Amino acid sequence: MKKKNDKTVFSIGYYRREQWPMLLRSSDDRHVLEDTYDEWMLSFEKGLKNMRAVGIEPLRVDIDINELLAWCKAKDFKNTGEYRAEFIVELCRQGRGRKIK
Q: Tens of pLDDT along 24-63?
């Protein structure tokens, strides 16, 4: 049971342009990722707009691909959307999410 002051926090991962090629090369589900950073950015912005439209103000979690890959290796996880999402949640729980302007 949630306490009165508990709230659900939504987070959204943010990748760096210069690391996009590394993400594509290392992904085990490359086929589901956008081909370019610009295409991904459009998807990110659309997702953010959709969340805001229903009253959700997610926290942005900046993703470092080297850190993601080390985390996946330590946990014996593949670099897939499922585990990238889990990584984002873990970083958010560590206080690494920030408000999006």
A: 999 999 999 999 999 999 999 999 999 999 999 999 999 9
> 2 in a domain, yes or no?
no
Contacts of 33 (CB under 8 A, 6+ apart): 23, 24, 27, 40
Q: How far apart are CA 12 and CA 54, in angstroms?
A: 15
**Structural domain of 49:** 11-99
Q: If you write DSSP's letter for every residue of 54-87 in order, what string do you get?
A: TT--PEEEEE-HHHHHHHHHHHT--SSHHHHHHH
What pTM was estimated for this model as a whole? 0.87
Please tell me the total count of domains within the chain. Answer: 1
